[in-house]
Amino acid sequence: MATSVPGTSGAGSPWMGDERTDWVPPNIDATKPSSARIYDYFLGGKDNYAIDRAAAEEMLKSAPDARKTARSNRAFLVKAVQLMTQAGIEQFIDLGTGIPTSPNVHEVAAETYPEARVVYVDIDPIVTSHARALLATLPTVVSVQQDLRQPAAILQDPAVRSLIDFSRPVGLLLVGVLHFVSFDVGTGMVRTYLNALAPGSHLALSAASREGMAPEAVRRMEEVGATLASGAFMRSMAQVEELFEGLDLVEPGITEVSRWRSDGTPGRLRILAGVGVKR
Predict the structure, then answer these.
(1) Is 256 among the domain residues?
(2) How far is CA 124 from CA 129, 170, 185, in A?
(3) Is the dihedral of CA 202, 103, 61, 124 positive or negative?
(4) What is the pLDDT at residue 27?
């Protein structure tokens, strides 16, 4: 498995096949851009619609290297999961998973633990449908359609409880999704998830940040984000640090995603990333 080249959109889309089409499946709202489909577009995927591409192109006006940043974010996910499996973690909850993109969390984890258990969570029905189609034959992987801002519902979901043993450490992934969760909700939400996890659990988190970005670029990004149902929220370093409160950060701490265990160069769109361990 070529985990060294993240960002290749998963094959076998149940709706779009090998060529892009703007046919809209039932129960999918294509009147508003989707954060998952925008991310898919940045990663070079085909599971997006004209409205998603238009929103993405608006973002590119302020951050023309956003595609590179998206790939750096995906690379962070891969490295974080590898770090967690090296620490002995065999089960994962991936919140806001997005459209399946290889290598997926379960693929990376399986390199160390072939029977690793993974729960994918996303509110977008297109994400859930894709995931369920691709993962139907894998008994140790499930996809649930839930709003990550409702941690109690997810933590009590029967599919989650049947797969995850909360008495043992869990790898909790919030990668590239917290910029769609408001400031007043995000901190308490993360704390609720962590409170349910055993000591030794790891949190991998990345979030768009206004640190190092020009005020005009921040304004334009937030304007585009306002067209999404969730909105968009760019955190300061202090706000990201708050999310890791009470955890032991692993090296190199909280840093720009392209520099997390890498020597990349930050782009105009800044994403802060880190991994913390629950005591």
Answers:
(1) yes
(2) 9, 24, 19
(3) negative
(4) 55
Each residue of 4-24: pLDDT tens digit?
Answer: 333 333 333 333 333 444 544
CATH number, residue 144: 3.40.50.150
Q: Which of 245, 246, 234 is nearest to 272 (CA)?
A: 234
- Examine the pLDDT at 38 and tell me if it is beyond 90: no
The 10s digit of each residue's pLDDT in 110-125 is 999 999 999 999 998 8
Q: What number of CA atoms fall less than 13 Å from residue 3's CA on the CB side?
A: 16
- Is residue 21 one of the residues assigned to a domain? no
In a domain, 18, yes or no: no
User: Does 274 map to a domain?
Assistant: yes
Nearest residue to 43 (alpha-carbon basis) of 87, 100, 109, 85: 100
Evaluated on CA atoms 114, 115, 116, 120, the torsion sign reads positive
Residue 173 has pLDDT above 80, yes or no: yes
β pairing state of 171-175 and 91-95: parallel
At 1 the three-state DSSP class reads coil
The Cα–Cα gap between 239 and 217 comes to 19
Domain span including residue 243: 30-278
Percent of the chain with pLDDT over 90: 56
Q: Which residues pair with 208 in a beta bridge?
A: 271
